[in-house]
Amino acid sequence: MMAPESDVLEYKQDLTKTFLKTVSAFGNFHDGDIIFGVADDLTVPGLDHPAQFAESVAHMINDSFTPAPPYDVSVNEDNRTVALHVYKGMHRPYLYKGKAYERRGSSTVETDRAVLQDLILESRNMTWDELPSSRENLTFAALEREAQNAFGLEKLGNDALRSLGLLSGSRFNHAAELLSDQNDFPGIDLTVFGDSVSIIRLRKIISGCSLIDQYWQALELFKSQYVYETIEESLRKKTERIPETAFREALVNALIHRNWSLPGFVSVQMYPDHIQITSPGGLPITITEEEYLNDNVSDPRNQTLAWIFLRLHLIERLGTGIARIKEAYAGSEPKPQFHLGPHRIRIELPVTDIFQPLTSKQSQYLDKMTPGVLYTRQDLEALFSLSRQQTLSILNTLLKSGYLTRMGSGRAVRYLRRPGQ
């Protein structure tokens, strides 16, 4: 029985020009095989003249590609089939009738504009952020501030910009534009939701400034929603409903590894029980899904940006982001989720403490409490219009369900509505 078609295997019963699209796909992305003489139902009727057929295959490839990807053609005399093995070539992109193709499962499809650009840049040993910018007279106050903190740089002059890979001669590149104070590329679209997507508690577009400032603004908003402090027996304790390390890594991943040639903002959606961070563009063409999820390689889409974020200590080490997100959730349930599509990457970070559902009456009492305000029991008796015993009952329920935290002890006990609730 023949193996089913896949991203590295295709069958053809006859010789038609459509196989040349798959030649383009294999030559552009990974080795693959096309077996001729096999029917759609995977039976093997074979070919009448396999040797002549093999010659025709070679002629059609050589006539259709300049240069052609490397390939081998062989004849199986036992079942009278012809096997074409195409190797991933060094002179990508390989275009058939002016278009590049890729395999998605058992289908061959035309690559989109962004992937084609990646292929072209890869053939030039370049990344998008190294391309020259049309902007002049850029300023770098945010980058200079961060460089001063990270490695004691006093002034960010042209020599320093050149050493960071942002200036070539007198011309800036795309990385410089993204890190400048005049960044005109799409930024971060951040939304804080209530109990449903129809309830929007906060909407903020972070753009028009350096990626560094975008990073810090998004981080501060994250802390206001998922990080809080309590005081227990005179000790201040920091609690993270979502690990800050995981959010930092996911945010940086979205900013420096996104496909900046695509329009659209990085989307950060904050829900009571999780965060979704979505970045435009799929994986770089040099990285497989398995390699991405297991941190087996480090091949950033924007090498200059990644290297600068590393030098600024905004990331610890290239190629460890996914591992650090997973490590932040060690021992916790549920786990982070990674959704990799051809046009976007989404990372979901769940909260590490799951709130228990409340009755409508209990929710009404919770809604009367303002987040960030410390309440005494007496304050809440007046706010709820309940007796001491009734108020204590409500407080115990809200505490056990995870919606409140208790601070201090004895007469100094205060109650705080937890962020995001």
What global shape is seen? flat
Gap between N and C termini: 58 Å
Structural class: alpha+beta
Please, what is the average pLDDT? 89
**Main sheet overview:** 6 strands, mixed
Helix share, percent = 25-40%
**Which ranges are low-confidence, i.e. pLDDT below 50, for 5 or more consecutive residues?**
none
**In order across it, which strands form the biggest sheet?**
10-9-13-14-16-15
The percentage of residues in β strands lies in: 15-25%
| Strand elements, count | 19
- Count, helices: 14
Our Rg estimate from Cα atoms comes to 28 Å
Features:
single chain, 421 residues, alpha+beta, six-stranded mixed beta sheet, four-stranded mixed beta sheet, 14 helices, 34% helix
Q: What is the compact description of this entry?
A:
Helix content is 34%, strand content 22%. The protein is of the alpha+beta class.
Question: Your description of this structure?
Answer:
The longest helix has 16 residues. α13 packs across α14. By secondary structure, the protein is an alpha+beta fold. The strands form six sheets. Strands 10-9-13-14-16-15 form a six-stranded mixed beta sheet, with helices on one face. A four-stranded mixed beta sheet has the order 1-2-4-3. A three-stranded antiparallel beta sheet has the order 17-19-18. α1 links the parallel β1 and β2. The radius of gyration is 28 Å and the shape is flat.
